[in-house]
Amino acid sequence: EAGYLVVRNTAGGVPLGTKLCYAVGGVPNQITTVAIGVSLQIFLLDVVQVNASYVSMILFVSHVWDAVTDPLVGYLVSRSHRTAVGKLTPWLIFSTPFGVLSYLLLWFEPGGSMSQPPSVLWYLTSACLFETLMSCYNIPYFSLNMFLGGDQKDRDSATAYRTTVEMLAALVASGIQGQVVAVYNTEKQEIPVTLNRNKRVWINRWMHLICVLSPQQKAFITSALVMGALFFLCSLVLFLGVKEQHAPLCSDDNVRPPYLTSLKMLMCHAPYQRLVLGFVFSVLAFQVWFQLRVSVLCPSKHDETQTCYLIFLIIMLYVCSLLFSVPVWQAVLLRIGKKATVFIGLSLFIPAVAIVACVPSNLPVFMTMCILMGFSTATIFLLPWSMLPDVVDDFTMRHPTCKDLEPLFFSCFAFCGKLARGLSVGISTMTLQFVGYRVGACNHGDRVAMALIVLFSPVPVALLLIGMIFFRFYPINEKQRGQLWEQKTTIQ
Predict the structure, then answer these.
(1) Class of domain 257-491
(2) Which candidate, 140, 141, 163, 143, places its Cα nearest to that of 333?
(3) Where are the annotated coiled coils located (predicted)?
(4) pLDDT digits (tens, 9 = 90+) for 209-243
(5) How far apart are the first and last CA of the chain?
(6) Cα angle vertex 304, ends 303, 310, to 5°?
(7) Domain ranges (residues) in the chain
(8) Is the pLDDT of residue 46 over 60?
(9) Cα–Cα distance, 425 to 236 (Å, whole number)
């Protein structure tokens, strides 16, 4: 114990301004994720006119690359040396300008006459480069929670502020991208009228791109510039408002295990195992339900416009309930602890899903249950990320010679979340395809109806119960949290 030294004072706590600036740093990831998820496929298919199979390949490879690079970047960050501005901050400074540039390249068409193979290579390279640079930004940013100063309550409070701001950013980005898609749809509907009026139906592809698709392309490029500007401004707020503190404990022993050895140590750590498994199964449950939530809305009773507005209203209710419930759950966890809060929050999802399955055609009931589901979903956005620093503390005390692995913890956790979201899409899509689901059709056979019912209720509930079992055996309670922090702050 003589080799360790406490190098920061936690008595003063973390100022509110620092927490808010830290929370703003989470905006770039949210707005770019929403923009890519909503608009990139439309842009590549209809503006750039890339073949659909190539678009699917670009999106799939870039998402796989994004997931794979997270642990690798986490290990590289953990192996980097401390500088005058800290260990994590240089990664944030380096990745921001290049991240903004690579994001803009995603929405730039290198040439209207470019053939398919070079165009595909351009967008595939741009997408993978952007995901790599975002990993270089996100992993140090998530890890920065451990280096804000203050105590455990300050860390938990900073996580709550980050979650709230990220949800607000996702809501704003959805609105911006909704306007872009609206411009795209308007221009697309006006194309035949303009062509017929000017008797230019048989113009060649080059003139078609210049004369017809230019307004659409301008809408996407304008959106990209707005997102890039927000990315840079929010990162600037993070740099100027948050000063990276030293690690709570500094060791003279400079043990840096290899990459695979570090991963094995993390995965063999029991609290991390159970937290990750509980997180993965819970995210799977929510995402499977999220993928199928609109399928229960049959457009037979409404026209297409009414259905779109109805779906938009339901999504807004769901997101707003997520946004406003985070402070509520933060207040609850301070009173009853994190494990108890997780169980209460996740349990709300089960009756909500059951009621929707039993009363599928009652719109007021469905909207009310969506609000309740939003309150439940907020716990999985907040609590696991709030529990992760406690796991890192426990690992640090059990393996005192293995230091600076915080980025690897956060990167592997982010990877598991992305893996769960990818699995949810695969489960729902493959099941519906197997039973003969047809996109856009309202009347389906009994097999499709049964598959929708099973995917919308029993499957998410079963996955959630498995996740709750792992949370039940998560070993770090409030008493142990206090003991861990006392040990860290008393070692001299």
Answers:
(1) mainly alpha
(2) 163
(3) none
(4) 444 445 667 778 888 899 999 999 999 999 999 99
(5) 7
(6) 90
(7) 12-189+207-245, 257-491
(8) yes
(9) 35
